[in-house]
Specification:
By secondary structure, this protein is α/β, with parallel strands linked by helices. The protein contains three helices and four strands. A four-stranded parallel beta sheet has the order 3-2-1-4, sandwiched between helices. Helix 1 (18-30) packs parallel to helix 2 (49-56). The protein is globular.
């Protein structure tokens, strides 16, 4: 018996502005048409209006905000804990793709 399992992908980005944000949104928006169940974790610290507007227009996207910084910081511990909670709640994931 042949089964078609949907690939489940989590995209994680701290830099959700400019080119990185656009590229990430291209993927989370386009991959479902190829049978991929996409989820997004992004940091609201470096988003721009383009990212926020486009994000709000993607139907059925499971998106979670986690405050992340660009460079190493003690707050990375809290961000890692929150990311783990997302993975436990919405996973398991076949792919975890970190952007930037």
């Amino acid at each position: 018996m042949l089964t078609s399992k949907r690939i489940k992908a989590l995209h994680v980005t701290e830099a959700s502005n400019a080119g990185v944000g656009g590229h990430t949104l291209d993927l989370v928006e386009g991959l479902p048409q190829f049978g991929c169940d996409t989820h997004l974790v992004y940091s609201p610290r470096r988003t721009d209006e383009f990212f926020q507007n486009r994000l709000s227009e993607i139907p059925d996207l499971q998106a979670t905000q986690i405050f992340m910084r660009r460079g190493p910081h003690w707050s990375d511990l809290a961000a890692a804990r929150q990311l783990r909670e997302v993975i436990e709640q919405h996973g398991p994931f076949d792919i975890i793709h970190a952007h930037s």
